[in-house]
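**User:**
Everyone, produce one record:

**Assistant:**
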Amino acid sequence: MATSGRLRLRAQTIARSTQPALYQPVARVWVDTGVFHLDQPYDYYVPQELSEVSKVGVRVQVPFNGREVEAIILERLEKSAISGVIKAITKVISVHTVATRASLKLIELVAQRWIANPFDIAKAAIPSRVASVDKKEFDELQRVESARKARGIHSFIAFDPVIPAPAQLGALASRALRSGSVLIIAPDESDIDAICTDLEERDLPFIRLDSSQSRSIRYENYLRAMRIKKTIVIGARGAVFTPIPDLSTILVFKESSHEHYEKRSPGWNVRDVVSMRRSLESIDLIFTGYVPSLELSVLIDSKRLSYVNHSHRLNIKSFSSDDGALLPGKIFSDIRKALVKGPVLFLAPRKGYGNALLCAHCRNLAICSCGVRLIVSSRGAAPSCMMCNSSYPDWSCTYCKRTKQYLAGRGIERAAEEISRAFTGYPLILSFGDVIKTRIEPTPPALVLSTPGATPQVEGGYSAVVVLEGLRFFSHPDLRAQERARELFFETSAILHPKGVALLCIEQSHPIVSSLIRWNPGAMIRSELAERVEIALPPTVTSFVITGPVGEFSILTAGIRKAISDKRLATSVKIYGPIEIAISQAKLVMYCHTQDTNSVTTFLHELARRRSIAKKEYLSIRINPYSL
């Protein structure tokens, strides 16, 4: 049913003397206070003139602390919990409902879990209003079906090799659509583009929601998604809150991607939010990817999440280099054979040219006067600082005073020089940084070099994939290095031609080799989880990262330690730091047993509230962030 004409106003305003509504005259709202500790719902009375359009999930304007601010209606009540006079809603900003009771509850739970003001989460969950869109007619919200056809699915489905991942996701979405609408959450714009292309080829109905769209298109699509049944809604992480009337299934594409973590405070993540939504709405939840994250692996290991993986045997060869050469000697014949059949992909661990400079005589690292290492940006270029860009055309070693240079940390541009010299007569295609090729032609055969995340697709797959300096992918200094490398090796090997070969520049004894041959990462994951349990690292414990002004941390750390000794905070809490991370900024890391997560979260929430009341500087608190 279309919204009646008289409701299609940009805003409806009332005089302050207007009488309260005859039915449910009180509206409980979240207010955009802009103040952390003023995060509770507030009661306002609803003027009779605005009663019909003042529905749950509607944006309104209310007086607050001497100014007019935006609010969103949570519920209508017969009586306020507050004794005394309450103020009135002054304006209905938009007559279109932008949230449902279920989506508001989800926002509330996310705010509680990640120590945030609910309205801040609502602003991330609901697209900004566009006046021109508000003038359009939209159907009334359809009643949410109480008995959905959910199949009780809660699983991680591992992608098969050779078949493009978007096509496998499209097949899952097509089957799930029989039970009701489907919500797909993908990491970024390129993934959404690929999935949308597959859905179009399948002639499936879908609505797109992501930041690549204009504000008006995104807002309009959001309103449509709330009002249409039997459709697929696809978007990035912000779309996870979208209310859909007959939602039956959520599909998370490439579940372990860092893009599924909100960059802005408070740093919620898609994996945990969709799990909350599954509990609230009784829907099917399917995570997808090549290798599950460690967080999901814990659930799989405890039988709380099913793991679906099909057995495959891939042609995998490994080669080790004892002299530091980019390409081990025995690999050349396999590459030449592959080039006869089609394009060959070379995956380089780093962009740039020479990412570190050493003295050729004493092998000491070349350092800038600011303390950061020097790099060489291109062939023949003078060494320069990677931080302050200071140039050193007459560089000499600080230790032995010699001037002969040795380039370490080989980047993709230098690798391209070496590979093009080794395999002359073939076109060279680079994909990295700001110059990313999304797709290449299968003929003529070419040398394709890319960095992680920038690999071009090719119809039929690559005749060979060469992973350069394989060990470097596992050597990044953060807790996600092994997880990222596993996903990358599997994802890269999956884009082979059915008769293609993966050539890994890594020792044969490395567990990634046998995992790829069997197309099963289970042994590697179990080994890493066992290590995490033994030394108490995430995800076997809950992590909290607090950042803020460096001057605050001596008192803050002492206060937390005292709370532990006084048993106001769980004794399982371990404190690491603080350490200085930037000018005038410091970081403190805390771990606790998973069963103590709620009590520690409550403690930190109260700490943040008291600091806000005292008008102290803001502390950023991240719970289980992607990287520590």
Remarks:
- The two ends are 50 Å apart (CA to CA).
- The mean pLDDT is 90.
- The chain has five domains: 5-134, 154-308, 316-352+411-532, 356-408, 542-623.
- Residues 4 and 137 are 8 Å apart (CA to CA).
